[in-house]
């Protein structure tokens, strides 16, 4: 499956930070607060609520991309 295209326009953080947070959450059994703590150890202050919003946005984009095409209305 190819990469999911997301718009990062208007985000406060760089794409690399957002992608890393989302990757950490989905790759390892971590909570949003644990991701927040890991990023703080790297010197990046990000709220667990922000991580939750990013993950929800990515999840929605993946679901839209994976959804079967709608049947034609004959």
Question: How would you sum up this structure in a few lines?
Answer:
Helix content is 57%, strand content 0%.
Characteristic key phrases:
74 residues, 3 helices, single chain, 57% helix, mainly alpha
Overall description:
Helix 2 packs across helix 3. 57% of the residues lie in helices and 0% in strands. The mean pLDDT is 88. The protein starts with 14 loop residues before the first helix and ends in an 8-residue tail after the last helix. The chain contains three helices and no strands.
Number of strands: 0
Helix content: 55-70%
The termini sit apart by 31 Å
Q: Uncertain regions: pLDDT < 50 for 5+ in a row?
A: none
Q: Which structural category do the helix and sheet elements fall into?
A: mainly alpha
Radius of gyration: 15 Å
The main sheet comes to: none
Order of helices and strands: HHH
Helix-strand layout with pairing:
Layout: H1 15-27, H2 32-41, H3 48-66
Helix pairs in contact: 1-3, 2-3
